[in-house]
Amino acid sequence: MNTVLQIPKSKDIEKMSLVLPLMNFVIMIPARFPDFIDNINNRTYPDYFIYAVLSTGAEYLENKTKAQKEVLQANYAKKALEIIKSLKNPSSPFVLWAFIFIITYTNDVHDFKTAEQAGVLANVFARRTRIYQLDLKRNILKRSEEDMEFSRRVWWTYYSYISSNTIFSCKYPPIDSRDIVVNLPTNDFSWRYGNVDLHIKESLSNFKSAENQHEVDFSDNSYLFILSFALSVKIISFLNKRWRKNSFDENMANSYFSRYLELAIQHGNKIKQKYPKLDFSMKDMFKNYDGDIRLNILSESGLHNFVIQQLHQNILLYMYQSNLVRDSNIMINSERVREAKLDSLSTAETLARNLVWANNNIPSKYFTLSMVSNTVVGAALLTNTVHLKYDDRIEYFYKTFQTIKEIYKEIGKKSEVMNSIITFIDYITKISDTAHKKNVDYTDLVLKMRPYSISNYDLHPWVVPKFASLFFFSCCFKENFSTLDIAEYLSPLLNKSSSSTPEGNIKTLKDKEIFPNDNENHQKAGSNNISDPKNKNSDIDPNEFNFGSFEYMFISNTKKLRHNFGVSNKINPGLGRSNASLSIIINKYDINPYYYIRKTKEIKDKEKKSDVSPTEIEKEIVKNLKRKK
């Protein structure tokens, strides 16, 4: 692509630049106003960076059709990548920031090739330049403090991106948090708006919403967002290994879980201290200041509040539903299962309630996929209410699930990836429905599920991720779930030598019965050469790269799914803020990072018990098989 792409007019650039922080504040953490706007208009920024910004920002140009915007965005992204690849060993932080804009562009469209290139090149850049060790002593004396702060903010923007992928897919982060030596961002307001006209800032200093007198907070926000990611990544890494063989014994796993849950709750308390409940109105802000930088200044703390609270609730839900995974080597604790179900429903409902708040307060043109991505795990959990909706106590949660889907559909009108998410949620519902229909044949076993139920209708295993994420395996979705087979769920410690009957080994439901068409028409997706030890024949192609990103996960599976369904600037001391780096802070979250490498011989074999004996299960299955003949 040798042609020079046209840059929008100055007025359009200004509008676009002011919209970007409202749509996705993370990518704008390094931005300063009005410098950001002026440097694009005057072509002061490198061309590749301007094109990268436009690959995301062109979506918000008002004088273009949707089709025209899509073509422009794709061309801008390709041009930016073309220029960057022609550079020899680039080291400017603008390169990494450009990659993040390009990746953000792919969030709403199915452009896998661009997402792959930008993701790989960003990782290579970060490793080659070691931007993640920016504040090592040998680096500090070489640059001005302003340049250092800018580079720090670019790094943390990239860190947020790779952390999102880790949380979403449970893939190991490309850069370990313990290697990071970068100061956290400080003085957010001064950095972003320090050059804005003084009279504008003074006119807003005492602003309160006319509707409910909500005070606007101009203190730091970015640090708490980053710390939320840091804790989330640690928790996800633990949950991903919790139910794997040879990783933890039962007591140690429970100890780790309790400690991480305690840390998550403590972190949530810090969030509550800084931010108010999401029960205030922002409608006046958007109505009175739309298109004005005043809107950005006034809405920033509210938008940060929403995103940080959603991220925190999201990780709590990951933890609670981890207690619903059925492991054949662990005794079922009925009280823990019931408690986990109630906690999961409550947390998913909080995610949904916050989503409804955002939907009611943020105009649709600003309401995008990036604002709802942390609710997908809640929507997936709430699919379990479809078969419980006739219970008065559960009906509310089912209606909450329907509300989420309606909001998703509205966003789907402008996001291809959102439509793929909707399809995936329907897919999970179908999986649950199919398993229910198969399980009801085992009448006696169904009744034995009552100790684990929270409703008269709750007599089947729940759909929950086995490896923390529903998207750990992108090629074969069934491997992501805890068992839905009621006989397997109720089975005691797995023991092949004692599990035979006159008819042969205990026969549980076939995967192809629960997961319709799961082995048909696979869309290859790759996995960084990671395979499930229980599934050595899984069709993961090691030659393809799997980012585990939101867009990639749904790009690679859309065809298959559619086929199947036609405060002050000081941080609270408890958060452990440091002037050194996250590497110090993160130690508060590392209970024991090397425990994951435990040797098999260190894990004690314990006798496991079950509420149902093997004989009872065998008799029920044999009886059911004879009934069908």
From TrEMBL:
CDD domains: fungal_TF_MHR
Compositional bias segments (type: Basic and acidic residues): 508-523
Location of the region described as Disordered in the Swiss-Prot/TrEMBL record: 497-538
Protein name per UniProt: Transcription factor domain-containing protein
